[in-house]
Amino acid sequence: MAERLRSRPRRMLTLPGVYAPQHDTHLLMRAVGRELADPGKRVLELGTGSGALAVHAARLGARVTAVDISRRAVLCAKLNAALHRQRVSVRHRDLSTFGRGGFDLVISNPPYVPAPVALPPVRGKARAWDGGLDGRAVVDQVCVTAATVLGPGGTLLMVHSAMCGVDVTIDALHGLGLDAQVIDRELVPFGPVLRSRLLWLRDQGLMDDEQQDKEELVVFRARQR
Asked: What is the pLDDT of residues 89-103, one digit of tens each?
């Protein structure tokens, strides 16, 4: 089991405009490693980006489908799956187009950075991280989609910043019929995007004046009843 937790892709190709694996990616990888103790589970990654998490799950013996709304991310994930010789079905798809799926595990590291615009961008590099005014535009979509596609007893693993509202996510998942809890937290240094928005984030009440250089990342585990 310890070997499973250490296992992760060493070299991930990242095309311009595609989210590169960072602290949140590796925090969620750790949770995926704990969840996939047995091979053969059906896994869906929502918003795959570089494909790092999808490749990680495939290396642990899962049958993985990965989707992204960005065609460049889809290409990047396909290239990384081939680079690491892992079988991953990567598709260009919007979260709102899913019907019932019967997946055992859904994983997602969605765009969650609050931004001074009402809706996430439809193009450009900020599409990989901006999540609307409160950071929840895509987070809430992931919650709804996961509740739809998970089979009985299936599990969602998702990571986002505490700025998006930890209790809001827990309540949203409960309202969708999932039993949810926080299973991991980590303080990480601000990246350049958050540093550039410090004054705005404080004006919006999304960040305390005492927060100088770190944000809290939170991993959620939600189980279909």
From this structure: 999 998 877 777 799
The string of pLDDT tens digits covering residues 33-78 is 999 988 999 999 999 999 999 999 999 999 999 999 999 999 999 9
* CATH (residue range 2-224): 3.40.50.150
CB of 123 closer than 8 Å to CB of 106? no
Question: How far, rounded to the nearest angstrom, does the alpha carbon of residue 171 sit from its chain's CA centroid?
Answer: 18
Bridge partner residues of 45 (DSSP):
66, 107
List, edge to edge, every strand of the sheet that includes 214-224: 88-92, 63-68, 42-46, 103-108, 150-161, 214-224, 178-189
* Number of neighbours of residue 168 by Cβ within 10 angstroms: 14
**Sequence ranges of the domains in the chain:** 2-224
Is the C-alpha dihedral spanning 63, 24, 4, 102 positive or negative? negative
